[in-house]
């Protein structure tokens, strides 16, 4: 008999989950103005709102927490992290920040000005927010295949070189401070970018003398996909692949709450001394002195260990294959999901799941609410609500995809939890005929509205 897969870790500490009834959840979600971000976590049974900062740390990381050096200047934990960042990414300079968007804020303060154009592959919402906040424009150059959830393509996060070159040709280079390549591409469904594509984007950038930066929140999961899917990389280690990918760029920002395997943290790493010097000033202003930049010493120590652990094959296999396990179950049940499966999340295709709910009534949000009400499962809308309004016309932007993301925390839930999620969705899918109306917005913020938006039921 072939042996089944088994996780390369065992559980040392557990946290109680709270069950609730459908009646309770109906009451709670109404009180939360139908915004899942407004729910207390003890009103959620399985929380797949995000994989950001929600993972379980290892015993080695917890041990590091105990020996964190909290010195204001010259912390040993900083030095430990700096060395690890250099070893893993190859970039010369390093600035810690309290999380990913802070890294964006600091780097973009040094590099992006009003009227600039920042091309990339489906920029993440905070990335786009920080670009638009500076009255610059993010241009999405992702390949067209990314926007059809039924097309199987091994690297749906790839940049379309023709689209990118068009942006380069139609704008003076002074207007393009850099290209941002997001690995894996979160907004396109946790889809990877190939080494081949990274290399080609890098060459095009060099030709037009435009720097290339990575938004590297899930760089390790990206490397796992490269090892599994890209010819010539089967026998390379994850650490070798990571180093090669980063070698094609000029720098990176990262939310360490993802592949850093910590609950809070982020950093900037880069090669250009001038940019580093400029960014250092902003880092001191916004984050803190250069040897902690918004992080505790103990957190920097835990991150150093986390970066090492997340770039090990056995960990990544358990991580990415758990997502695939859930995805396969859903496909088996006929539930429409984005394929191939992402590295950190499964994306439900609400356009196919609930086409009877008008887009103007936020059908993906309606599906996310239903999943909570029926199963106590908290996912998140990645559709019209998240896409926000056009900053100039103030009209709703309707993205190609209306998705509900089920982002799985790292090393946190078992496959039994995945089975529970899949069965809940099957039941919702089988009874979806009745879904005709969605929600209307009654209050929203001028930017990044999804966190605080309030709805009422139509
Ligand atoms: C999470 C994330 C960010 C922002 O990081 P925070 O730590 O949440 O501030 C930026 N880009 C990508 C791709 C992300 O996934």
What are the SSEs and their pairings?
Blueprint: H1 22-31, E1 46-47, H2 59-66, H3 76-89, E2 93-97, H4 100-111, E3 117-120, H5 125-133, E4 137-140, H6 161-169, E5 179-182, H7 195-207, E6 212-215, H8 219-229, H9 238-247, E7 251-255, E8 266-270, H10 273-286, H11 297-310, H12 313-332, E9 345-349, H13 350-353, H14 363-375, E10 377-378, E11 380-382, H15 384-387, E12 403-407, H16 415-430, E13 439-443, E14 454-457
Parallel strand pairs: 1-10, 3-4, 5-6, 6-7
Antiparallel strand pairs: 2-8, 7-8, 9-12, 11-12, 13-14
This protein binds pyridoxal-5'-phosphate (PLP).
Family: Belongs to the beta-eliminating lyase family.
Domain Aromatic amino acid beta-eliminating lyase/threonine aldolase: 47-423
Keywords: Lyase, Pyridoxal phosphate
Architecture overview:
The protein has 458 residues and is an alpha/beta fold. The protein has 2 domains: 175 residues, Aspartate Aminotransferase, domain 1; 252 residues, Type I PLP-dependent aspartate aminotransferase-like (Major domain) (Aspartate Aminotransferase, domain 2). The strands form 5 sheets. Strands 2-8-7-6-5 form a 5-stranded mixed beta sheet, sandwiched between helices. The protein has a 3-stranded antiparallel beta sheet with strand order 9-12-11. Helix 4 packs across helix 10 and helix 14 packs across helix 16. The longest helix is centred in the C-terminal third of the chain and has 20 residues. It is globular. 49% of the residues are buried. The model has no long low-confidence stretch (mean pLDDT 95). The site of pyridoxal-5'-phosphate has 15 residues, from helix 4 and helix 5.
